[in-house]
Amino acid sequence: MLIANQKLRENIAEYVLYMWQVENIIRSLNFDINLINLHVIEAMTSNEDAREDVREWYEEIIQEMKQNDLVEAGHLQRVEQVMEELNFLHNTLLTSLNDKKYQEYFSKAYPFIEELRKKSDSESSDIEICLTAMFGKLMLRMQQREVSKQTEDALKEFAKVLAYLSKQYKDFRSGNLKFQINN
């Protein structure tokens, strides 16, 4: 089973982060499937059938990125669609559903989101800012660089928001999210 498919079913925030990582890997290896095969696919599994499936998947992603002019920046349409769904669900939980637990998580994360929004001069959505921060932590970890205490505190709050949102997204997609107004 492809990792992306598993993450898509189990944890949508992890899926987005994984796909962003895949996009970066493809760019860093200059869209060269042979380099991707050597440095990524062969390290993933020794099973030849699984390798072929993963290689085909990477070839599909490469083609899609090239066709949509994502060579230097940007995200795949399938990832952008998930982001739109997450933003819709985020807004629905905060407003229409008046989800108290989500509101509590979000209210603790919101000052950090605003601080990051100002620092980066970004007009990104709240959820994209949380995901971008988590992706930044992943990149710092890969470079074996430290994360400040203040940043770590913010990331903990972002993780709570994303974990709850991911659970609700999974429930929504499976038809188990209860759309009742909490008063």
Describe the model:
- This protein has 183 residues and is mostly helical.
- It folds into two domains: 3-67, no CATH class; 77-174, no CATH class.
- It has helices at residues 3-10, 12-28, 33-44, 48-67, 77-94, 100-120, 126-142, 149-174.
- Helix 5 crosses helix 8 (149-174) and helix 6 packs across helix 7.
- The longest helix has 26 residues, at 149-174.
- It is globular, with a radius of gyration of 18 Å.
- The N and C termini lie far apart (42 Å).
Sheet with most strands: none
Indicate the percent of residues in helices: over 70%
Give helix and strand order, one letter per element, not per position.
HHHHHHHH
Number of strands: 0
Question: What's the domain count?
Answer: 2
- Quote the beta fraction: under 5%
